[in-house]
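In response to a reviewer's request, we include the raw inputs and outputs for one of the modeled complexes. The two entities were modeled together in a single run.
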Amino acid sequence: MIATIAAKELRTFFGTPMAWIILAVLEIILAWFFLNQIDAFLAIQTQLASYANPPGVTELIVTPLFGNAAMILLMAVPFLSMRLIAGERRARTLTLLLAAPVSITEIVLGKFVGLIAFLVLFIGLATLMSLSLYAGAALDLGLLISNIIGLILLAASFAALGLFISSLTAHPIIAGIGSLGAFLGLWAINLSAHDPNSWLHTLSLLKHFESFNRGVIASADAAFFVLFIVLFLVLAVKRLDSDRLRG
Amino acid sequence: MTNITVSASGLSRRYGTRVAVHDLGFELRQGEVLGLLGPNGAGKSTTLQMLAGCLAPSSGGIEICGIDLLEQPREAKSLLGYLPETPPLYQELTVNEFLRFAARLHRVAKTAIPAAVESAKQRCGLAEAGKRLVGSLSKGYQQRVGIAQAIVHNPRVVILDEPTSGLDPIQIREIRKLIRELGGEHSVILSTHILPDVESICDRVQIMNQGRLAFAGSMAELKQAHPEQAGLEEVFIHLTRQENL
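The model returned the following structure tokens for the whole complex.
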């Protein structure tokens, strides 16, 4: 049942120009960063040769590319997540799901999985872009995989928070602006979290992504993402359930 | 054992301090068509939302074919088809896609889905509209898609909230015919403002006013109970006005 709802969400994404435009715009921005990074790499390549243990192509191009992709997702996810529940409430189609023999958890998970599938597609494009470097260099596959895992976890966290905010209102635009605000707030936390021992540092999503970005797959960071995702999915379920109780 | 498909008892719903439905109880038998009548704001839609499991009652219980809707919502809901006041339609899907999705949501077996979608389209006069986007259909056709969505999984109980609203006279006649057909095998509960609808298709009527039941019984009983009134319209006005005083 989760797969049915997820498949329907994906079809809705691609049934409107929105998804195509978002994918195209993100891809263009990402390609721009990518080419810039390659240029920069070529400029310093001769200097690198004089180092004893120089950073590789993966560190100099793929790591910043995925860092940029994370920021792009921060901006893009609100546009995708805002309709998920708020839009259905507005169009009064939520009743179809609520009256069907489907639990609210399945509805929320279905929508979450549908959005993740779309975001994974975007991450797949970023990965393909990185793999194209094989044409002229050898890649550090471990670092690339760590980046992919980190970015998927980060995207899933954005998706879970966006989905929860979408469940709070019947206006997609309000949900979108609310999510963007929340994500920018998380980013602001990241900017002021210099001390690694402070609670701000613990709370910052992007700081946890940074370890993956550097190639460190730490279970503590992964656990933080998982907790974050579960928390907001549970809150979204509670919120939808209270609709039924309060009317 | 029993052919009672819907049984509600002591059903109440409050929004804050306002009582929308108060202590409502009724039973529906297999094959019956029950008409829910009442002026605007009488609590018809609230009642139907509760029967469909979209709204939790403040108190009281609902059983669908002997299954408690609040205790086992999944089992009970799979026996229900529901058309809300605003048909829940995804504008960006085609009629076929939408009905397939509705069938899958209601756990129709994968192999049975094409036949279920075909028969629902056939019954609702949508045979030609399968490939059109729901959003491009006229209001009457959208209403038909809404009804098709409610019957695609062949439910035991069909709940229709104002199924004939927004339709032209020819479509109304077709929908009435469809509802009467449905009544043969399914149980149907429908709410409406249109009194001739009730007279022509319902076996029993319930008149609601201000959240309470003002009358419940068959059409014959209604005429017996209010011999001084000429028809349903007069009874309706008599009952609802009396309560308003």
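As requested, we also summarize the result in words. Residues 32-50+79-244 of chain B form a domain with the Rossmann fold fold (CATH 3.40.50.300). The two ends of chain B are 44 Å apart (CA to CA).
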